[in-house]
Amino acid sequence: MQDILSRPPSARWDDHGQLEVLTFDLGEETLAVEAMLVREILDLLPETKVPGAPPLVSSVVNFRGKIIPIADLRLAFDMPPAQVTVDSRIIVIEIEIGGEATQIGMRTDKVHEVTTLNRSDAETPPAVGMRWRRDFIHDLVRQSGGIIVLPNLGAIFRTDTDAACS
User: What's the pLDDT at 134?
Assistant: First the structure.
């Protein structure tokens, strides 16, 4: 698996300018992750807080005998906390961090569907007018229902692991 932390954003789209993603909600925003990264979609599980862990990934769950860190992307995007609902889920992804395949669960408010996005509908985040860190976003993709945010998970989790090592 190529290290997602070192891949340029343009490498994410296929030769036809398409990208298969799983869409999900965080608050009022719709985000998407590459479908090939997704390993599981789970109902919420009991979480165990990890003392001294960075706030972004401050707890773990035990799923099928495997300990999986749980990330709250709301913290990366400075979003307010959310109440758990019947639609809340955990998306378990696998990315390379420090040369090692790592599974991370991401809390979501609602998981939607696997869909295909077109590069022609995507733009890099603007230099001004963004309320989020630009390096945390690969692309913003126009869709009929609004904008889908493609987060730069490599940058988000690199920042978190850098903070944990300080």
Answer: 86
Sheet with 48-49: strands ordered across: 38-43, 89-97, 100-108, 66-71, 59-63, 48-49
Question: How far is it, in rounded angstroms, from Cα 143 to Cα 68?
Answer: 32
How far apart are alpha carbons 25 and 166 in whole angstroms? 31
- On whether the CB atoms of residues 31 and 73 are closer than 8 A, the answer is yes
Residue 155 CB neighbours (<10 A): 18
Average pLDDT per run of 10 along the chain, which is 166 residues long?
A: 42 87 95 96 96 94 94 92 93 90 95 96 83 88 93 82 47
Residue 92 has φ and ψ, to the nearest 5°, of: -95, 120
Give CA torsion, residues 67, 152, 35, 7, to 10 deg: -100
